[in-house]
DNA sequence: ATGGCCTCGGTTCGAGGA
């Protein structure tokens, strides 16, 4: 079973890339973030024609998440039930006995800003809800754009980034609280080359210079982690014309 | 270097992203 997360930065613009990528990579589950579409504009027909079922929750201009699946999806939940939030950032479904949780964690803008405080509150809400979900669903996968680089290894220039949003101590502590629920970073279950990232700024020729961050993650509960046979980041879509600034992260589970 | 780019909404600029 292959599980994937990909922040597409507008599904309207990126639908051709998504369909092309799925055609070349027929995975089981694809979690999308930043669809930026209201539900009435979601391209259901095109995705179903590609052989996928889909659930989604979106809003105008910002945020929006979706799960595409080759298999039946049950128990779909939108947003964090115990956390009041107008922003559409979470969707979850049960697929082949695996609880798949797709998240678009807030960016936080700048340390100390209102958006940063919202990010930390949001992460608390996610943690508290997931604690219960992990008890109900032993097989749980948390996939998404976390907007957190958990370690200096995940940052192209840790000195330049030190203390800033996406790498600050409080954000990293919130990431560790999620892993303390028994969730493992699938990417770090394996030996990986250095300087592997999932996001590069559109500016400064950042992709060509590999000035990136690893902020898109797949966390797996213990039963999934022990049967995970690989995790890789596919840079290919970032090389296309008009790419998303994020790339797909793929976990393979036996 | 108070930046560079991309997307959206809605007009030709501002907000947000990371």
Question: What's the gist of this structure?
Answer:
24% of the residues lie in helices and 26% in strands. The chain is of the alpha+beta class.
Account of the protein in words:
The protein has 254 residues and is an alpha+beta fold. The chain contains six helices and 14 strands. The strands form three sheets. Strands 3-4-2-1-14-13 form a six-stranded mixed β-sheet. Strand 3 and strand 4 form a beta hairpin. Helix 3 packs parallel to helix 5. The protein binds one DNA strand of 18 nucleotides through loops.
Strand count? 14
> What characteristic shape results from the CA principal axes?
globular
Q: Biggest β-sheet, characterized?
A: 6 strands, mixed
Describe the strand arrangement of the main beta sheet, using strand numbers.
3-4-2-1-14-13
Please give the share of residues in helix: 10-25%
How is the secondary structure organized here?
Elements: E1 2-7, H1 11-24, E2 29-33, H2 44-49, E3 53-57, E4 65-69, E5 74-78, E6 90-95, E7 98-104, H3 114-136, E8 140-145, H4 158-161, H5 169-179, E9 184-185, E10 199-200, E11 212-213, E12 216-220, H6 222-225, E13 228-233, E14 249-253
Parallel strand pairs: 1-2, 7-8
Antiparallel strand pairs: 1-14, 2-4, 3-4, 5-6, 6-7, 8-12, 9-12, 10-11, 13-14
Helix pairs in contact: 3-5
This protein binds one DNA strand of 18 nucleotides through residues 9-10, 12-13, 34, 36, 60-62, 107-109, 115, 147, 164-166, 199, 201-206, 213, 215, 242, 244-245.
């Amino acid at each position: 079973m292959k599980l994937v997360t990909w922040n597409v930065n507008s599904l309207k613009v990126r639908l051709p890339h998504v369909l092309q990528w799925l055609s070349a990579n027929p995975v089981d589950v694809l979690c999308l973030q930043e669809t930026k579409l209201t539900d009435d504009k979601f391209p259901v027909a095109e995705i179903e024609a590609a052989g996928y079922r889909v659930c989604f929750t979106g809003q105008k201009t910002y945020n929006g998440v979706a799960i595409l699946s080759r298999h039946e999806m049950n128990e779909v939940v939108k947003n964090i039930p115990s956390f009041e939030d107008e922003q559409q950032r979470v969707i979850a479904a049960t697929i082949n006995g695996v609880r798949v949780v797709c998240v678009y964690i807030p960016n936080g803008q700048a340390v100390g800003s209102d958006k940063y405080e919202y990010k930390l509150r949001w992460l608390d809400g996610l943690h508290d809800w997931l604690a219960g979900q992990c008890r109900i669903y032993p097989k749980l996968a948390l996939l998404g754009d976390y907007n957190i680089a958990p370690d200096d290894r995940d940052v192209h220039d840790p000195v330049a980034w030190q203390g800033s949003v996406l790498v600050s101590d409080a954000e990293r502590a919130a990431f560790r609280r999620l892993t303390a629920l028994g969730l493992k970073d699938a990417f770090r279950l394996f030996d990986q080359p250095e300087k592997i990232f999932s996001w590069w700024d559109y500016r400064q020729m950042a992709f060509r210079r590999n000035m990136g961050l690893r902020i898109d993650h797949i966390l797996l509960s213990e039963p999934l982690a022990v049967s995970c046979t690989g995790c890789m980041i596919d840079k290919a879509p970032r090389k296309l014309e008009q790419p998303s600034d994020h790339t797909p992260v793929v976990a393979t589970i036996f």
